[in-house]
Automatic annotation (TrEMBL):
Gene Ontology terms: biological process: hydrogen peroxide catabolic process; response to oxidative stress
Disulfide pattern: C38-C121, C71-C76, C127-C327, C206-C238
InterPro entries referenced in this protein's UniProt entry, alphabetically: Haem_peroxidase, Haem_peroxidase_sf, Peroxidase_pln, Peroxidases_heam-ligand_BS, Secretory_peroxidase
Origin superkingdom: Eukaryota
Annotated binding of Ca(2+) 1, by residue: D70, V73, G75, D77, S79, E91
Residues spanning the signal sequence: 1-27
Protein name (record): Peroxidase
Keyword Protease assigned: no
Domain Plant heme peroxidase family profile, chain residue ranges per copy: 28-331
SUPFAM superfamilies: Heme-dependent peroxidases
Co-factor remark: Binds 1 heme b (iron(II)-protoporphyrin IX) group per subunit. Binds 2 calcium ions per subunit.
Family: Belongs to the peroxidase family. Ascorbate peroxidase subfamily.
Role of this protein: Removal of H(2)O(2), oxidation of toxic reductants, biosynthesis and degradation of lignin, suberization, auxin catabolism, response to environmental stresses such as wounding, pathogen attack and oxidative stress. These functions might be dependent on each isozyme/isoform in each plant tissue.
Amino acid sequence: MAAPHLHLLLVLSLALSLCLFPDTARAQLRQNYYASSCPRVESIVRGVVQNKIKQTFVTIPATLRLFFHDCFVQGCDASVMVASTATNKAEKDHSDNLSLAGDGFDTVIKAKAAVDATPGCRNKVSCADILAMATRDVIALSGGPSYAVELGRLDGLSSTAASVNGKLPQPTFTLNQLTGMFAANGLTQTDMIALSAAHTLGFSHCSKFANRIYSFSRQRAIDPTLNSTYAKALQSMCPRNVDPRIAINMDPNTPRTFDNMYYKNLIQGMGLFTSDQVLFTDSRSKPTVNKWATDSKAFQQAFITAMTKLGRVGVKTGRNGKIRQDCAVLA
Ligand code: HEM
Ligand SMILES: *[C@@H]1O[C@H](CO)[C@@H](O)[C@H](O)[C@H]1NC(C)=O
Ligand SMILES: CC(=O)N[C@H]1CO[C@H](CO)[C@@H](O)[C@@H]1O
């Protein structure tokens, strides 16, 4: 008589744990998710991204960074796209949005409009998936690896500036802080080192690294891990009291190409942020930097793996999400 009871108990406890932890059952993303509902979606998005890049290069780094910030705050659910209202200050208006360039938002909005204008596709494709596709496209279109993107995310139901607190890495972070924050999102230290190479593209405002080139106490002038030639160049581009709107290339060598120059720069002491350079100065991550500086293929493989994992963070399905009609509006 014990056996059937045990059986029932197992079934009950399984059902109970699924009710209590609906988010722990990993949402199932898959390639070609829209194959029957909107079969041309990937080429429609790519076309919009290509056009947008023709208008401005900033499309590329802006979209890539937007995806990262989306995924690290409440998961990859396009919550970063939501506009603030009179009663709700949204994620994008937290100071840590660190000048998320408007061209990333614009790319997603334009791609969503193009998708929704396609017969049969209207209201079928989430903003979160469009951002994931556009991100894959900007990487490939700037010389990086091309990969099949997993889809099937829904858009999140909330977005608050408060939810950003403590969720995004800071440029002053140590290796332990970086590794810890990525681990909290299911990413390994190796994934973190791979994803950091996104800084091979795009711009940084002078304030983000001013502490490395000027002394604000009497302790030291220039960060000793910074290449002194590079430090002088940075000082001339970013003089004290520089216009806070000035931004400089993060990769001084190939700023418009997605390549492994990031790691070559680190070896020369030319990582822009403390959080970049520490990957080379800390003996735990240094071997990986050395390896990927000389082995572009190995780096690209690691980057694809890490991006795919990043795209799975906090994915919403079922009642936890919806397909937003307007990516900037929750309701
Ligand atoms: C590892 C920890 C990271 C830190 C501390 C960090 C920090 C920063 C900071 C401070 C900026 C400059 C923002 C500004 O001044 O406007 C920046 C820019 C950027 N970050 Fe990161 N980031 C990190 C990881 C990532 C990851 C994982 C990605 C994407 C996969 C990414 C993509 C970018 C891009 C593309 C830009 C340039 C944005 C533009 O030009 O508009 N970052 N990051
Ligand atoms: C500093 O950078 C220059 C190139 O800008 C390079 O030739 C030099 O070797 C670097 N110094 C160090 C210590 O890596
Ligand atoms: C693009 C964007 O939404 N930028 C906002 C970032 O946050 C500041 C305030 O912290 C806003 O003023 C910007 O509009």
